[in-house]
């Protein structure tokens, strides 16, 4: 009898938790923690800094260029895999940023000449600004 009562109480608690209505801000905060967004954003920013440093350097070797570009691509794809967020606006902003980071990585990979490096740097700059915009929206909307 006691076991049955305990099981009933436990089931009620679980059902109550499932039915809890959360605000979009609460859902966004939970998503941010569960997806590791904070560390992913820091990693992507560090990748972008590394790529920019190599692209701005004097004639980077193909191996070095390919390495930093590949790391950026892998990390942007991993971050993109954590989407969608619970808030459509934040999902759109982050998706655009991750897509632009991927595009910058592809441009970087083929940026042997100075013109190619400038195009990759321009896309990288656009992507990091988009990432900052997405991060700011996430912070603002999650309260």
Give an account of the 3D structure.
The longest helix has 29 residues, at 114-142. This protein has a single domain (23-142), classed as Four Helix Bundle (Hemerythrin (Met), subunit A) (Up-down Bundle), CATH 1.20.120. α5 packs antiparallel against α6 (114-142). It is mostly helical and 143 residues long. It has six helices and no strands. Residues 5-19 have low confidence and may be disordered.
Per DSSP, the total helix count is 6
CATH architecture annotation: Up-down Bundle
Write the H/E string, N to C. HHHHHH
Mean pLDDT: 87
Rg, rounded, reads 21 Å
Q: Helix fraction?
A: over 70%
- Indicate the CATH class: Mainly Alpha
Task: Let me know the number of strands.
Answer: 0
Low-confidence stretches: 5-19
Shape call: elongated
CATH topology: Four Helix Bundle (Hemerythrin (Met), subunit A)
Determine the N-to-C terminus distance: 45 Å
Report the biggest beta sheet as strand number plus sense, adding barrel if it closes: none
By secondary-structure content and strand pairing, the structural class works out as mainly alpha
Task: Provide the β-strand percentage band.
Answer: under 5%
Q: Could you say how many structural domains there are in total?
A: 1
């Amino acid at each position: 009898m006691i076991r049955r009562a305990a099981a009933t109480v436990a089931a009620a608690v679980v059902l109550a938790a499932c039915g809890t209505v959360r605000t979009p801000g609460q859902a966004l905060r939970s998503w941010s923690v569960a997806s590791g967004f904070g560390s992913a954003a820091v990693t992507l920013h560090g990748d972008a800094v590394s790529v920019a440093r190599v692209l701005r350097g004097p004639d980077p070797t193909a191996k070095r260029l390919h390495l930093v570009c590949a790391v950026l691509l892998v990390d942007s794809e991993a971050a993109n895999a954590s989407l969608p967020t619970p808030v459509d606006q934040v999902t759109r902003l982050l998706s655009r940023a991750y897509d632009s980071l991927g595009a910058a990585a592809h441009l970087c990979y083929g940026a042997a000449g100075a013109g190619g490096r400038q195009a990759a740097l321009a896309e990288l700059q656009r992507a990091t600004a988009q990432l900052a915009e997405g991060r700011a929206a996430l912070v603002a909307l999650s309260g």
